[in-house]
User: Fold this.
Amino acid sequence: MATILQPLAPWMRDLSRFMNTPGAASAFLPPADVLVSEDGVTVYMDVPGIKAEDLDIQLENDMLTVRGERRPPWESLEGCTARVERSFGAFERTLRVTGGLDPEGIEASMSDGVLMMRLPEPARTQPRRIQIHPSTATGSGAGVQAETEGGPGGAPGDTAPATGEMPEGAADEAPAPTAPSGAVA
Assistant:
């Protein structure tokens, strides 16, 4: 199976934490573990304090994207001194996964603030032997008449059944069958 991960490097996440103003809430970027096996891909993502209905998960081509927002538990920091070490805010986390996964096959569950997404490997199509059935008609196109031509001797626009059956009332007009030349009766 191919290498699948190209997430945001951990050092960039740490750098982001150091670049933010001390005491201010930093942007939330959920950490993720991606496990690849023969059965597919499993992703574990820490999303504490976020409800399942506030998450949006999409798979497009080989990019798995999780969007959401982690809201702080307070209304405002105005008028108080605060040291905020936890991260909050809207986020979008995109991970490169194995190509060819079926978006309809994704299963997601959440327990204790951990989002688990299972992306099963699609079933591989197996070669199938196709049986050729012998034809029951002799000759090419036997028993089939074109509807637009009206059939043999018919006027354009007349239609004849494609099954080789006679139309109603045509049995009286049909010529008697003839024996092939050289046949003895």
Q: What stands out?
A: Residues 27 and 87 are 5 Å apart (CA to CA). DSSP finds one helix and eight strands in the chain. Confidence is low (pLDDT under 50) at residues 1-6, 142-151.
